[in-house]
Amino acid sequence: MGKTKVIVGLGSCGLAAGAGKVYDAIKQIKEEKGLDFELKKTSCIGMCFREPLVEVVDGKGSYIYGEIDVAKAAEILEKHIQGADPIKDYVVQTELFDTKDKNFFEGQVKIALRNCGYIDPESIEEYEAREGYDALKRIAAEKIQSVDIIQNVLDSGIRGRGGGGFPTGLKWRFAYNNKADVKYIICNADEGDPGAFMDRSVLEGDPHSVLEGMTIGAYAIQACEGWIYCRAEYPLAIKRLNIAIDQARAKGYLGKNILGIEGFDFDIHIKEGAGAFVCGEETALMASIEGERGMPRKRPPFPAESGLWKRPTNINNVETFANIPWIINHGASEYAKYGTAKSKGTKVFALTGKINNGGLVEVPMGITIKDVIFKLGGGIIGNKKFKAVQLGGPSGGCIPDYLSDTVVDYDSVNATGAIMGSGGMVVMDETTCMVDMARFFLDFTKKESCGKCTFCRIGTQRMLEILERITKGEGKATDIDTLIELSNQIKDSSLCGLGQTAPNPVLTTIKYFRDEYEAHIRDKKCPAKSCKPLLTYEIITDKCTGCLLCKKVCAVNAISGERKMPHLIDQSLCTKCGSCYTKCKFAAISLT
Amino acid sequence: MRIARISEKRETVVQDTVDLTLMEPFIEKYKSTRGNMIPLLQHTQEMYGYIPQEAFLKLEKETSLKLSDMYGVASFYAQFRLKPVGKHIIKVCHGTACHVQNATAVTEALEEELAVKDGETTPDNLFTLESVACLGCCSLAPVMMIGDETFAKLGGKQAKDVIRAIREKETGSKCDHQE
Q1: In this predicted model, what pLDDT tens digit does every residue of A361-377 receive, in sequence order?
Q2: What is the pTM of this model?
Q3: Which residues of B touch A389 (CB under 8 A)?
C-alpha cells in the first residue's frame, strides 16, 4: 500500500475560488502536526462548480472533496487522515460510494483531458508515468515513417478541434507534400472565444501532451521549429508551458537528434498574444508571430504552402495536439471507435451560463446536447426553463430547446445554423433575452474586427446599431429584413472566418426566436424581461400595504405614497433598477 | 473595428520620471531577432505599466523598427496602453458567461463607486477600470480580477465592497471624495 496522498487542484478556476489558501493551510497543518502523507498539486479536473477541490487517495481509493475552505480542509485532515474516516458529506466524487455529482463523470470519455487533474503539470515524471512520451519513443524505436504517422492520424478521423473541423491528417499531408528545407508547426492557443476555457485547462493541466503532440506533428511534416501562440491573459498556462519546455529539452524530447532519430531537430517557442480575437484566425496569427498587426491574409496560398515567414506551416489547435499521442499509443481504430460516421473521437466542452454543473467535460461525439446539459451539466440553475444553448461563441449560433436532441458532431450542429466551434457551450434560460445576446456578440465582433474588409468593418457596426435600437424599443418594422440582408452580405464579402461567421448569432436568433425580435419591435416589450428600457414596474394597488419599503429603497425618489396607502411609481423618473421589485415583501409590484 | 482604438488626440503622455535605461537589457536581447516588435512593446509596458512616448522614440533609434509600424501595432492590440494606469487595475470580465450572469451590473456599480467610466483611471491614480473579454473562470461568473486576485460570483454591492476595502488600506479612508 502506497503512502496516502492529498492532492489540491490548483488550476486558474481553483485558484480563483481560493485553492491557494487551502493548499497553504494543509501544508501548515501537515508540518505542525507532523502528519504522514504526501501533499501534491494538480490542475483542473473539470468540476469548476465545486472548486476548490481536494483529493485524498488512501489505501481504499480516491475521494474528491468539493467546495473546500480552510476550515473544511482542517476537518478532513483530522477525520480522514488522522482518523481514517472519510467525511462523506463533503465528497463529490469517488468510486467507493454514490455522490450527488456522480452523473457529471458518467458518460465522459477522457482522451484529451486524460491527465488533467490527475498529474502534477509541473512534473515531467508524472506525465511519463502515464504513457507520457511513449508515443514519441515508439516512433523512434520502431522507426515509424512520416507517411505512416500521417496515415494513422488520417485513419483516426480526428478533425480540427479549434472549430474548423478540417481533417488533421489531410492538413499534415499537405504540409508534408510541400518540400522545403525549413518548415514550421504552430499550436494555436489563442483561445479568444469569451466563454471557452478548454485549451487553458489542457495547457495548465497537461502541457507535455501538447508538446508531445507538436513534436510528433513536426516529425510527420518534417518541421524544424514550433511556436505556441498563447493568449497573454493565461499567465499560468504560459508559466507551466515554459517549465514543461525546459524539462522536455533537458530530457532530450526537444533539441537535436531527438531520441536518437538522426537529423530530427526540433524546438518549441512560446509567443504571447497581445489581445486580439482575430489572431485566432491562422493567417492573422502568423502575422502576429511575425510582429505585425494581426490582420488576416488572402488564401491561397494556404499556410501549408506559404505560411510563417513564407515557409510551409502547419497550424493545429491545443486540443488536437493533445489527442495525437493517445492516437499513436492506442491506435487509430481505437480512437475512431468513439463518435459518429463523420466526426470521430471526443470533444471537450466548457459548460457555462445558467447551468448547475459549470465546468469542463469531454464527451464522445454523437452524444445529444440534452444529455450534456441535463445529465452531465445537472440542468438549469434554480430549475428555470431551458431556452437555448450557444455553441461556438461569437462565431457560432444558438440551438433552441426543442432541438436539444441534436447530436454533437460537426455536421449535425452545422445543420442547425450554429457551429461546433472550439467548445464553448453557454446555456441560457428563460430570463435571457435572445436579442440582447445577439447584440452582445455583435458588440464583441464589431470591436474585434480588424478593419481590413469593408463589409465586416462597417457592416458589423451597422448591425450593432440596429440591434441596440431594437433593445431600446426603437426598432422599425423593416429591421429584421435589413439584419438578414446585411448578415448575408458580410458573410459573402469577408476575407476571414471572423467576418464570415460574425452574423451567425444574429441569423440563428432570428431563425429560432423571431417572435422575440417582433415583440421588441412591434410591442416594445422584452419577453425575457431583460432589456431595461422596455420594462415597466407598476404597483398593484390591491396588494400594496403601504409599508414604505419600496419608497425607501428607490434611489431616484420615483415612488410616492403615504404610510398604509397604496404607493405609486412615477414612470418618468423610474430608472428600472428593479430595487423596489426585489425588496417588496408582498409581491405588490408587477414587472411587464 | 480595431481602428476605433486610435484616438484623434495624441494619446502618448510625456512624463519626466521615466527611466529609459531600464529598457536596455531587453532591447539588447531582442534587437536583432525576427518578429521582435511585439515582445519589445510587451517588455516596455511591463516596465512602465504603459508605453511612454520616449520609449517609442528610443526603440526607433536603437532598433530597426519604424515609429509608424510600432504605433500601428500598439494601437491594434488591446493589451497595449498609451496612457499611465492606476496602481490597481480592475479587470471586469465581460465574457459570454459573465454577461449572462449580469456582469453589466458589476461595471455599473464600479463606475458609480469610482466616479470614472469604463477604461478610465481615477484622479488619485489608485484605480483603473477595465472591461476584459474573458478571464477563463466562467463557472465562477461574474468575476473581476485585481492584481493577481480573482473575485468570484459578484454582485454590484460585493464589487463596491472590494474596492472600498482596498481604498481603506491605501488611504485610510473609505471615500475618495468629500461628501
Answers
A1: 999 999 999 999 999 99
A2: 0.92
A3: none
